[in-house]
Specification:
Two copies of one chain form a homodimer. By secondary structure, chain A is an alpha+beta fold. Helices cover 39% and strands 20% of the residues of chain A. Chain A contains eight helices and twelve strands. The first copy, chain A, has helices spanning 13-16, 30-39, 120-129, 131-157, 160-176, 191-198, 202-214, 230-238, and strands spanning 4-5, 41-43, 51-53, 61-67, 70-75, 81-87, 92-93, 106-109, 114-119, 184-186, 218-221, 224-227. Chain A has a five-stranded antiparallel sheet. Chain A has a four-stranded antiparallel sheet with strand order 3-8-5-6. The longest helix of chain A is centred in the middle third of the chain and has 27 residues, at 131-157. Chains A and B meet through strand 6, helix 3, helix 4 and helix 6 of A and strand 6, helix 3, helix 4 and helix 6 of B. The first copy, chain A, binds a DNA duplex (30 and 30 nucleotides) through helix 7.
Chain lengths: 252, 252
DNA sequence: CGCAAATTTGAGAGCATTCAACTCCTGTGG
DNA sequence: CCACAGGAGTTGAATGCTCTCAAATTTGCG
């Protein structure tokens, strides 16, 4: 991996960071904040396609995304790869490793990405002293559980259209939280990666985007997307898997 | 909900509990164990079909399953229900609520079930003092993330046969950890609930179980199941979604 | 400018669903 | 004791959504 730059070179980085509301330091005091900052290490940016860590690596650190974006990928015993999430500035990755002290997914940069590295044992120690930090850590872990379960609902009960709409809306709402446009953004992942994430074929993604555009829901130009009709997108996202506006029955 | 029985009436329950290796007290000392025990409340058993808590309820407590089994269910905005997990003795439920202080799934008993209730704020406090407890809590949260992500892989990349096989093997391995038979057990959930959980139709579950039996993989009699060929079940569970032993391509 | 990768588009095939009928099991009431 | 209602589960047939295969087209980049 790339060389670690001592964090002292940055003046009170967490305190000044525009992402602190989303990240670990949320809700902790000035002095505790400084103690957290001493833990944090900064890396030279990670190049597109390079990994933060690999599935099977021992847990050393948690990473916070500063700029750019990453995907986390799990490969099953049979070699099938599943993208379990995309992560954007302010989000943390590596939580899956706490259970067994080993990462069970790889995290790969989708574009040039800068991250903060936080040694986990030090973070664990500090969280013992700082209740606010401990709660925020738990909140972030819990939020990941929530998100995964929303995803289970999506994959288990929704058809391709609803999945695509939900995906676009999820990106939108996450970008809004970072002060970006809710209706116009750049996709840092390929069609194939979206397909993998949503449990669909790449060709299906292509067709869905085309159909959404025809229907006036969105505009697509390569990886540039504009959401034209948020309300209707929400309707589509809430649809059952039959795509006709009625919920497909799957249980007795 | 049912009346709470003061836990003092039970002699050192966590310490004597056969599930302590799986549960919260794992890896903490004698004196800390006693402090944990003082937190724990015991309920009268929860009847089949009754709920521990409902989606939308504020977070009050985490629950540990002592005997019986439960399902957790999330309902989407459109009313579609997704079972996000089944839980057995020694497992904890309620972690999803930490993020927003509100449960985003309901937990319902599949059979008469006894549980331990642990007030979350007290647990949070105590975990600040007891590093071992804090780590175990984090491990349990992290394990849930891992499991959900395994499930994402299953729903995203695997066909019906692989899902069914993986489901049976998952039950098997969890029962083994509790000293039960790995190859012979009772299903506490209906076909419809399995179907919902696996993102399939009830009829498909029925057909799969029949086919597995024909193929000599298992024996089914109502809700009694025996796994006859663990190795081959593992092969089936690792198969891609085409069911032919080759991985279906879903990404470029 | 030209190759390689990513994306789009078209056509046919397959797995799982939906619809529907039937069996089995259980509990209830006459 | 038996008829009956209701739920759970099974089985069969047909439809369809999404996949796979294939080829054209565009984009990215050296």
């Amino acid at each position: 991996m790339t060389a670690v730059i001592p964090f002292g070179e940055l003046k009170r980085a967490c305190g000044n960071c525009s992402l602190r509301e989303l990240c670990l330091p949320y809700g902790i005091g000035e002095s505790d904040l400084r103690r957290l900052e001493q833990l944090v290490q900064r890396h030279a940016p990670v190049a597109r396609g390079k990994q933060l860590f690999l599935q099977g690596d021992p847990l050393r650190s948690i990473f916070a995304i500063r700029t750019g974006s990453v995907k986390s990928v799990t490969v099953g015993e049979d070699g099938a790869e599943q993208i379990t999430g995309f992560h954007f500035p302010g989000e943390l990755v590596g939580f899956d490793a706490i259970a067994a002290d080993v990462h069970d997914c790889s995290v790969v940069a989708l574009e040039d990405t800068s991250v903060c590295e936080i040694p986990f044992d030090r973070l664990d120690e500090l969280s013992g002293c700082v209740p606010g930090l401990r709660r925020q850590l738990m909140r972030l872990l819990s939020r990941e559980i929530q998100q995964d379960q929303q995803m289970l609902l999506l994959l288990g009960k929704k058809g391709s259209e609803a999945r695509m709409a939900a995906f676009l809306l999820s990106l939108s709402s996450r970008f809004v939280g970072r002060g970006l446009s809710a209706s116009r953004f750049h996709l840092s992942m390929s069609r194939g990666e979206i397909a993998n994430y949503l449990g669909l074929a790449m060709e299906t993604i292509s067709r869905l985007l085309a159909r959404f555009q025809q229907d006036g829901l969105i505009t697509v130009d390569g990886r540039e997307v504009a959401l034209l009709d948020l309300p209707r997108l929400h309707v589509v996202a809430d649809m059952g898997s039959d795509g006709g506006g009625f919920t497909r029955r799957r249980e007795g």
